[in-house]
Design brief:
The protein is α/β, with parallel strands linked by helices and 353 residues long. It has a single domain (3-19, 46-303), classed as TIM Barrel (Alpha-Beta Barrel). 44% of the residues lie in helices and 13% in strands. It has 14 helices and 12 strands. α10 (238-248) packs across α13.
Length: 353
């Protein structure tokens, strides 16, 4: 089966997945309400600096598509939505375009539609650094996502089984890439141990890509006629992974992706240390159900809700969210306790906004 056909299959399978509320761990996070905020809505802005670029809100339309006919239409719609809402956007894996030049147009369309926007390129950790630089050039990218997807490959009937050399490959890429490199999991989380190993080779920017959003093991189960269902619960939840990396004090930038679907989810991620919230699957379903205009409405509604949360907290900008007390409970607190990460530093923050 060709890569293009496989990417189309992944998208159609993702649309079949049932929602999994609370899997991401953000249901275990409660922001402490400020009954006396002493600010006006006019003082609240969502404008954010991310990797040296200003965007209208700390939200990224994150990677979900590869190359092919269906992904090309999705990339086009996402690019329009990013342009109209001022958000950053990441394309999906560009490997197919590096192998087949005819597939490049499904990625180049993003920069053509949104010439002044923030666009992130996307390649796998096993790709030669020289080819990764071609992916950056292809769309004149502002940053490069390098994805880790071992569980997906392990269960994929036609997937890779040899993951040797990834660390050295990433190290070389970080050293030669002219734009920031973000290491991104595709849905199974990054532990603090892996974050330390990546930091040791020069990685400063992370997308936690935790469990709770698009589940690529479930997608492969659909492609495999329901086999390997026992592995669907694999991974670290988005909230737990985010806190693991934040508590290690190793990251310059953290994006939280995996099961976020609302302005409140984005606010919780910011309070836990994220610089931005990445959303892919939820936006994909909205696009297929309500077209591009519906996607733009959903993004604008999410931005409006995020602004309301900041107002209720007495916070004037996203960069101040790390001062807001956040109470961590349930399974997320149990996980962090077992991992030796204390949570009172989040819940007992002095109210200094």
């Amino acid at each position: 089966m060709s890569r293009i056909t496989r990417k189309d299959e992944h998208i159609l399978s993702a649309l079949k997945l049932e929602p999994q509320p609370q899997v991401s761990g953000f249901g275990d996070i409660t922001l402490v309400h400020n009954a006396l905020p002493e600010i006006s809505e006019n003082e609240v802005t969502l404008d954010t600096m991310l990797l040296g670029r200003q965007i209208s809100a700390p939200i990224v339309i994150n990677a979900i598509t590869g190359g092919g006919s269906v992904p090309a239409k999705i990339n086009e719609a996402f690019a329009i939505a990013a342009r109209e809402t001022g958000l950053a956007m990441a394309v999906g894996s560009q490997s197919v375009a590096l192998e087949r030049p005819e597939a490049e147009k499904s990625f180049r369309i993003v920069r053509k539609i949104n010439p002044g926007g923030m666009v992130l390129a996307n390649v796998g950790a096993n790709l030669r650094p020289e080819d990764a630089l071609r992916a950056v050039e292809m769309i004149n990218a502002d940053a490069l996502q390098v994805y880790l997807n071992v569980p997906q490959e392990a269960v994929m009937k036609d997937g890779d089984r040899d993951f040797r050399g990834w660390t050295a490959n990433i190290s070389r890429l970080v050293n030669i890439c002219p734009v920031p490199v973000i290491i991104k999991e595709v849905g199974f989380g990054i532990s603090r141990e892996v974050a330390r190993r990546l930091h040791d080779i020069g990685v400063e920017h992370f997308d936690v890509g935790g469990r709770g959003g698009t589940n690529f093991i479930s997608i492969e189960c659909i492609r495999n006629d329901g086999r390997q269902r026992a592995l669907e619960t694999w991974g670290i939840t988005t909230a737990a992974s985010l806190i693991e990396i934040e508590s290690s004090n190793l990251a310059t930038t953290i994006m939280a992706t995996g099961g976020l679907a609302s302005g409140l989810d984005a606010a919780k991620a910011l309070a836990l240390g994220a610089n931005a919230a990445g959303i892919a699957g939820a936006y994909l379903k909205t696009l297929f159900e309500s077209n591009t205009d519906g996607l733009i409405r959903r993004i604008e509604n999410m931005k409006a809700d995020l602004k309301k949360v900041l107002l209720m907290l007495g916070v004037k900008s996203p960069r101040e969210m790390n001062k807001v007390p956040a109470v961590i409970s349930g399974k997320t607190r149990e996980w962090l306790a077992e991992r030796g990460i204390e949570t009172r530093s989040f819940s007992c923050r002095p109210w200094s906004v």
